[in-house]
Design goal:
Layout: E1 3-9, E2 13-20, E3 23-31, E4 41-50, E5 55-59, E6 66-69, H1 82-85, H2 93-96, E7 102-109, E8 118-120, E9 125-126, E10 130-134, E11 139-141, H3 148-159, E12 166-170, H4 179-202, E13 207-210, H5 215-222, E14 230-233, H6 236-249, E15 257-259, H7 272-278, E16 283-285, E17 291-296, E18 301-306, H8 316-338, E19 342-347, H9 354-368, E20 375-380, E21 386-390, H10 397-401, H11 417-434, E22 439-444, H12 446-452, H13 457-467, E23 470-475, E24 484-488
Helix pairs in contact: 5-6, 8-9, 11-12
Pfam family, one: RNase_E_G_Thio
Subcellular location: Cytoplasm
GO cellular component, one term: cytoplasm
């Protein structure tokens, strides 16, 4: 199965699409304005020590000096003397750093308002499966990996890569990862740290030694063990940066990197742009005529399967079974494409046959086996629903591209034209009782104006008789359906 990455780069946004067998499977989006500097490593210089606050200000080359608290200075850094590493505790800031001292620090909190960035000397480098800890020779394992057998396996694999340079923490995502995948991550992180050490010697104070990887670089780092056929980038500058990155850190991907210079926008290839737009719809059409309804809420995501126009060729039970089987592949793809995580409830069409239920469950497990993100299926409940979870790795595509609707304010629905008409009539009555007006002018959305001049005209006429005043309706093209203003004249 051929796999391609399409990378669309603009000054304000980077988008990456993963195409498998000509079909869009994953979309990643990063906006420059939301990247921040958390994770960046700097060679800073202590500009001021504040014993009263047990903190120091460090100049890292930004507009505002960054903040380093005594509790964020850890034993295995150059700030702490050897004799203090034996039994470390938070000491007086004056004993830990001095004004004019150069430090290697990492940003743990972005600058906010008048406050500068928050720093730590406990530098770490994350990758997909591991976190590298310079100067620490041990291996830690995420508590979320519950299987003792898997914990022991991963610890044994990773321990071979620990040396004087540092140790590792095994992340939850490493559960089930192969030895080669973990080894590639470890080699990548150690190579990265060696570059940081080189730059620490060469670079002047108040300079960045390492910038948290951008989206395109992170994707290439995470896909290094994937069988990629081609990586196309539509920006010459973006291509050159990625080429420099792959040559230095993941040379096995360099020959697959291509600059895309076609006249057609890169995301028009494989209908990618349209597929992204369709990923925001609630309804997903199936080829048979059935469809899915996908609703993402704060607590969970629900998926409902319907036969729709699919009537089948044999009997109802076969029609239902075939629709459910087709839906399993569509569901697996949509979870990846939309990056839906957390609790997911799937309401397959009710099946009387236990054999059909078993086969649908197996089909779903098979479809989800291609997902790089960890999933866990709990099977059918007594109500005939499938409960499953999918690890949250980043924001869903809907949360990245969309915001709360200003019209319905997140309700997911708006009042009908009829309801708005009656609300307007009630408001006119209320205002008439409270204030003395000669007549009224009401500004409304075009659809509401049409209704008050048509189907609801009799109600408006009765109100005019009741209050003894003229009411004039004016349609405003820019008004949304629930919006209106009652003006006294």
């Amino acid at each position: 199965m051929s796999t391609e990455l399409l990378i669309n780069v603009t000054p304000s946004e980077t988008r990456v699409a993963m195409i498998e067998a000509g079909t869009l499977q994953e979309v990643h989006v990063e906006r420059e304005s939301k990247r921040g500097i958390v994770g960046n490593i700097y060679k800073g210089r202590v500009s001021r020590v504040l014993p009263g606050m047990q903190a120091a200000f460090v100049d890292i080359g930004l507009e505002k000096a960054a903040f380093l608290h005594a509790s964020d200075i850890v034993p295995h850094t150059e700030c702490v003397a050897e004799n203090e590493k034996q039994q470390f505790q938070v000491l007086d800031i004056s004993e830990l750093v001095r004004q004019g001292q150069d430090l290697v620090v990492q940003v743990v909190k972005d600058p906010l308002g008048t406050k500068g960035a928050r720093l730590t000397t406990d530098v770490t480098l994350p990758s997909r499966y591991l976190v590298f800890m310079p100067g620490a020779a041990h291996v830690g394992v995420s508590q979320r990996i519950e299987s003792e057998k898997e914990r022991d396996r991963l610890k044994k694999v990773v321990s071979h890569h620990c040396d004087d340079l540092g140790g590792f923490i095994i992340r939850t995502a490493a559960e089930g990862a192969t030895e080669d995948e973990v080894a590639q991550d470890a080699a990548f992180l150690k190579h990265l740290w060696r570059k940081v050490l080189e730059r620490r010697v060469k670079n002047k104070p108040k300079s960045m030694l390492y910038g948290e990887l951008g989206l395109a670089q992170r994707i290439l780092r995470d896909f290094v063990s994937t069988e990629l056929d081609c990586i196309q980038v539509d920006s010459r500058l973006g291509f050159e940066k990625l080429k420099e990155f792959t040559d230095e850190f993941v040379p096995e991907l360099s020959e697959k990197l291509e600059y895309y210079s076609g006249e057609q926008p890169i995301f028009d290839l494989f209908d990618t742009e349209s597929e992204i737009q369709r990923s925001l719809d609630r309804k997903v059409e199936l080829k048979s005529g059935g469809y899915l309804i996908i609703d993402q809420t704060e607590a969970m995501t629900t998926v409902d399967i319907n036969t729709g126009a699919f009537v089948g060729r044999r009997n109802l039970e076969e029609t239902i079974f075939n629709t459910n089987i087709e839906a399993t592949k569509a569901i697996a793809r949509q979870l990846r494409l939309r990056n839906l995580g957390g609790i997911i409830i799937i309401d397959f069409i009710d099946m009387a046959s236990e054999d059909h239920q078993r086969r649908v469950l197996l089909a779903l497990e098979q479809a989800l086996s291609y997902d790089r993100v960890k999933t866990n299926i709990n099977g059918f409940t007594q109500l005939g629903l499938i409960e499953m979870t999918r690890k949250r790795t980043r924001e869903s595509i809907e949360h990245v591209l969309c915001g709360t609707c200003p019209t319905c304010e997140g309700r997911g629905s708006v009042k009908t034209v009829e309801s708005v008409c009656y609300e307007i009539l009630r408001e006119i009555t209320r205002v008439n009782r409270a204030y003395d007006a000669d007549r009224f002018v009401v500004y409304v959305a075009p659809a509401v104006a049409d209704a008050l001049g048509g189907d609801e005209y009799h109600a408006l006429a009765e109100l005019e008789v009741f209050i003894g005043k003229q009411v004039k309706i004016k349609g405003e093209p820019l008004y949304v359906q629930e919006q209106f203003d009652v003006v006294m004249m």
